[in-house]
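Same chain as my last thread, 261 residues:
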Amino acid sequence: MNELANTSNQSPLTPAEALLYARFAELAVNVATEVDFNDLVIKHVTPLLPHGMLLAVQGEFTFEHLTIRHHIASRYPEWAFAQIPTVINIRERPVIARWLKTRKPVIIDIEQDAKLLSERELFEIQTFGLGRLAVHGVSDLTNHMASYFSFALVDPALDRAVLNQRLAMMCPLLHIALSQVFCQSKPVGAPQHDLTAIERELLTWLAAGRSNQQMAELRQRSLSTVRNQLEKLYAKLEVSTRAEAVALALRQTRHLPDFGE
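reply #2:
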């Protein structure tokens, strides 16, 4: 079974949506500027995950705080973007705390989920007119640095299960794109690396957002074997995160891994 078919089993993509996703993945690894990132979000994320605004953040988690190092807003009002704090107390942000605990997407429908929000979050949603929220993130291997994506004005007709699946599919690639904007990945001119067939296969699944457990099942290997293979891959590429590994390899080869193999 090919990789695109595996992805489709996780998220009900039509043939047209599958092509949109493949194009999104191809473009995500070539993002270099904030303009590129916003163009990617507007033209290639919105058709698959309909929303009105996106806040994309890279930050460092220390004890009970998130220190924002970089952030990009897509279609956010300037006055709202200007009020985003540099340091966030996680105890005041149950939505972030919930994602940190589960590392799974969090969907907030204000009428159903108001009890899950702090007074501050509720005030911001109402004041900024954020509507339905969908948030997810990607952390590095240390679990201290992460990219965090907060989609606002999400289409209320989009089923929660589908929304969760699409966030899980798309956020790892958005993390790659965001990292490249802020020069977190290796430069394009970095040395080429000779990868084995297994390492290329692992990179394909990393780019599609597969977990270690899912890759173990797909390869019919133990979880510890896959972890060891990934550690060797990261060492070969001289990176510390899965997003950096995918970004470096794909930017060097300048093409998306073959999802049809």
